[in-house]
Design brief:
Largest sheet: 10 strands, mixed
Radius of gyration: 22 Å
Helix content: 25-40%
Number of strands: 16
Shape: globular
Oligomer: single chain
CATH class of the largest domain: Alpha Beta
Order of helices and strands: EHEHEHEHEHEHEHHEEEEEEEEHHEH
Number of helices: 11
CATH superfamily of the largest domain: Dihydrodipicolinate Reductase, domain 2
């Protein structure tokens, strides 16, 4: 198959039938790096069988094949989508390659589990939602907070009014990359068995540089959006879930690449203020210190904590009766005090839960079998990813922006609207 021949397969008739509760789902993996292989392993444990693996870097695809105990290997993911027996795919490529495989998989009649952030830009995300709806395919995102029982409980707590009025929410992601950051390397020839031009895909054509590949691509605007799209997207989705929100109406940002002198482009400090109807959300990303917020409770576990008292990732919901601090594996309620008596206004509560990715993989397979909506539907993931993109757009423009969430545009602002998408490099200008 020639690379420039795009797939136009008719939807597979068998892909939409309801499967038995224990029936195996035949799948393909597109993007076979460490995250893709991890999710594929969880899918296998939950009852999936992987028949094919695709990666522009063939050693990754072969490693995934070996871990699965067999299957076909491709460098071009479109060859994988031609296999009629494949019912669903996992898309775990770098961010700039999420949209095209997802859209083509929907056209080929495959259900899709696509890693977060949903898309490289806002227009790509909307195209993914539309492809899912047109085809009737299940498209779920790797925003695994949606499968965390303790966060569903936190949502019920906030919406019940137990915390009182919640008008301020914080989200934070901290990690100390000082002093080296991601480092620097000169341009060079690409490794053997890497199709560098295919890896770049819709992004601009540039010489191979190791820092633009594999684990450090997220620090380059061509392929991703830094910490806010990587880690922030999960937490924005949870804010929407807990607060019952759909999107902000204004955004402003401040930050810069102040200290790190590596090859990366995204800011090492970023603070974004979002104005939602009824509340304000403050987002913080810091790559120069890993502490986050302080205050830990003995006996509680905290997500990605490495020190004795750090809380590097989390969300806080500040209500008139108490505050709820949450992360991927737990939450705590800190009561406000009654005037005069000092008695707590509401009971304190502390809960830990399991890391939700295994349950999230099971949920996707159950959705494929039963044809019910997944826990993390593509529309919810799109709206959460928009929040991250809005923060980056406000940072790049350096001014406050108004956002029309219903129309997904910046009213009367052509400069901001110009950053909703990008002109993809041919022949990958499909979206």
């Amino acid at each position: 198959m020639r690379r420039r021949t795009f797939l136009r397969a008719a939807p597979a008739v068998s892909a939409g039938r309801i499967l038995g509760a224990g029936e195996r789902v035949t799948m393909g993996l597109i993007g076979c790096g460490s995250r893709g292989r991890y999710v594929a392993r969880l899918m296998r444990e939950a009852g999936a069988e992987f028949a094919a693996f695709a990666d522009v870097y063939l050693p990754n695809a072969r490693r995934a094949q070996q871990e699965a105990g067999g299957g076909r290997v491709f460098q071009d993911f479109r060859r994988l989508l031609e296999i009629a027996q494949i019912q669903a795919v996992v898309v775990a490529t770098p961010d700039h390659w999420h949209a095209i495989p997802t859209v083509l998989a929907c056209q080929a009649g495959k259900d899709v589990y696509v890693e977060k952030p949903l898309a490289h830009n806002i227009r790509e995300g909307r195209a993914m939602v539309e492809a899912a709806r047109r085809s009737g395919r299940i498209v779920a995102a790797g925003t695994q907070h949606r499968s965390a029982a303790h966060l569903a409980e936190a949502a019920r707590t906030v919406r019940s009014g137990e915390l009182g009025e919640v008008r301020f929410v914080r989200v934070w992601n901290y990690a100390n990359l000082h002093p080296a950051g991601i480092g620097r390397e000169p341009d060079s020839s690409p490794p053997e068995e890497l199709d560098w031009e295919f890896y770049l895909g819709p992004a601009p054509l540039v010489p191979f540089n190791r820092k633009r590949f594999l684990g450090t691509y997220r620090w380059f605007w061509d392929y991703a959006g830094g910490y806010i799209t990587d880690f922030g997207t999960h937490r924005f989705d949870t804010v929407h879930q807990i607060m019952g929100a759909g999107g902000p109406r204004a955004v402003s940002a401040a930050g810069g690449r102040f200290t790190l002198r590596d090859a990366g482009e995204t800011p090492d400090i970023l603070q974004v203020t979002y104005e939602y109807p009824g509340f304000v959300l403050s987002y913080e990303a810091c790559n120069l210190n890993a502490h986050g917020v302080g205050g830990r409770t003995p006996g509680m576990s905290y997500y990605n904590a490495r020190g004795a008292d750090d809380r590097p990732h989390g969300m806080a919901f500040y209500g008139t009766e108490g505050a709820l601090f949450a992360d991927r594996i737990g939450y705590e309620i800190y009561p406000e005090r009654k005037p005069g008596s000092g008695e707590p206004r509401i009971p304190a509560r502390r809960i830990n839960g399991p890391e939700p990715t295994p349950q999230h993989a099971r949920d996707f397979l159950e959705a494929v079998r039963s044809r019910r909506p997944p826990a993390a539907d593509v529309e919810d993931a799109h709206r959460a990813t928009i929040v991250a993109h809005l923060g980056n757009i406000a940072f790049k423009l350096g001014r406050k922006l108004r956002w029309d969430a219903a129309r997904e545009t910046f009213p009367d602002d052509s400069d901001a609207a110009g950053l909703l998408g990008r002109q993809a490099r041919k022949p990958w200008d499909l979206i």
